[in-house]
Amino acid sequence: MIELNETHQPELTSWVVSANDESSDFPIQNLPFAIFKRKDTAENFRAGVAIGEHIVDLKAAHKAGVFSMELTPLLKTLYKPRLNKFMSKGRAAWSALRLELSRALRSGSDAQAQLESCLVPQTHAEYKVPARIGDYTDFYTSINHATNVGKLFRPDNPLLPNYQWIPIGYHGRSSSIEVSGHGFHRPHGQLKAPDADTPKLAPCKRLDYELEVGIYIGSGNKLGHAIDLDQAEDHVFGLCVFNDWSARDIQAWEYQPLGPFLSKSFASTVSPWIVTMEALAPYRQAWSRPSDHPQPLPYLESHDNRNAGAVDMHLEVLLQTAKMKADGVAAERVALSNFNQSYWTISQMVAHHSVNGCNLKPGDFFGSGTQSGTSPDSVGALLEATEGGKNPITLSNGEKRTFLEDGDTVVLNGWCDSENAPRIGFGTAEATVLPAINT
Ligand code: CA
Asked: What residues are labeled active site?
């Protein structure tokens, strides 16, 4: 686990004035990474760090002589259009850069004059998926979600017996992960009504969002060598907000016996920013397992994991329909949840994933699975909120939704705050449902 250090001090302020606004996602204690360029230019994509309403262009900052000579090889990895090489360098390297950046961005820093010309306003930037994601694994770590969904598919047997022993996951599709701000067409697939004899190919009618945390692997492990639970977070670069769109009607017909396939592989959305595990240190919480539940096997059990395995990360879903957009009405909250309810921790996901010797690589990606609380306004998918489409939700303007309609925009937010640390945010993961093609 990462100890608190001078970069976490709550009283730190920045000479970038917008970073000192209490409502900013990006105070000086955050310093998340993205890959960006200026919109509508021929610039190359490159790495940046968010500060207030700006981005520090790390290549420009390096060239301006802001950093110490020892960081030169590390900084050159940040000229690249993806973060994989930087992610491979490991926790000590990420931390060394964070410390120098924190010092350079502080109020009164001598580096202000050199760094000012290296700032790009976020409103002028476009982003791309920050890593080349080789493999994407989708976990299922919210027991509330697993139970709610299980009840719909198997009323008598909602939670399968392996759930409380294994961080359940499956291999997802990385090619269709896109960065916030995109649109995607409603997918086609095989649909089969319960009373029909045969399926038909048609556009999905039960399109849903999934409120998830995205987890980027930093340094990997050698094939054949498992990662111990207490070293697991050394291999994790950071977290983002993640919408793993799902076609529930395609899923219902295809998911047995091998699990979801085309119902999940048509689109997923990441927020542009990756908040590092170091930045998240002040927001860690104890993780526990109810005493009447099975306790983890020894390879998934440790003092550190119990002590601070959970992350107190608020997660929010907002919905804006086409009508709301036309009427100038802002997106409306439909769910508020927290990652600290997760049945399994990030370390347990990493340790379990590698226990068979499977090698994780820099830039690999995990979805946490939909993070749902216990109350109706805290569930992270419409499937749960509407009890399988039976009870529509009603928005403030009177519109109803059982599942998503064309023109709906879904915005996910994530943030952390605590009594002893400022609010830090993850930026948004936003995308819009477009009509199915050929209809
Ligand atoms: Ca998922």
From this structure: 145
Integer Cα distance of 278 and 33 in angstroms: 12
- Per-residue pLDDT reduced to its tens digit, 180-219: 999 999 999 999 998 999 999 999 999 999 999 999 999 9
The C-alpha atoms of residue 242 and residue 236 are separated, in whole angstroms, by 16
258 Cα–ligand 1 center, Å: 15
Separation of CA 212 and ligand 1 centre (Å): 7
pLDDT in tens, 241-294: 999 999 999 999 999 899 999 999 999 999 999 999 999 999 999 999 999 999
Nearest to 25, CA basis, from 316, 423, 429, 342: 423
Distance in Å, CA 137 to ligand 1 centroid: 9
Q: For residue 291, give the amino acid letter.
A: S
Residue corresponding to tokens 């399968």: 160
Q: Which amino acid is at 171?
A: H
Question: pLDDT band for position 439 (50/70/90)?
Answer: low
DSSP assignments along 241-303, one per residue: EEE--EEHHHHHHH-TTT--STTTTT-EEE-S-BEETTTTGGGEE-----TTSPPPPGGG--H
pLDDT at 230 over 70: yes
User: Distance between CA 276 and CA 130 in Å, rounded?
Assistant: 13
Q: Are 102 and 5 in contact (CB under 8 A)?
A: no
SS3 of 111, please? coil
- Rounded Cα gap, residues 350 and 231, in angstroms: 9
Copy the structure tokens of residue 313: 């990360």
Q: DSSP for 102-134?
A: HHHHBTT-TTHHHHHTTEEEGGGEEEE-SS---
- The Cα 413–Cα 241 span in angstroms is 7
- What percent of the chain stands above pLDDT 90? 96
How many other C-beta atoms are found inside a 10 Å radius of the C-beta of residue 15? 20
Question: Max Cα separation, the chain?
Answer: 74
**Conformation bin of residue 387: beta by default, left when phi > 0, alpha when psi is -120 to 50:** left
- Give the Cα separation of 240 and 32 in Å (integer): 10
Q: How far is the CA of 77 from the centre of ligand 1 (A)?
A: 31
Yes or no: say if 105 and 51 are a contact pair by the CB < 8 Å rule.
yes
358 CA distance to ligand 1 middle (Å): 21
Paired residues of 320 in beta bridges: 409
pTM of the model: 0.97
Distance in angstroms (rounded) separating the CA atoms of residues 97 and 68: 9
pLDDT class of 154 with cuts at 50, 70, 90: confident
Q: How far is it, in rounded angstroms, from Cα 75 to Cα 274? A: 17
Q: Which two tokens stand for residue 155?
A: 């009323």
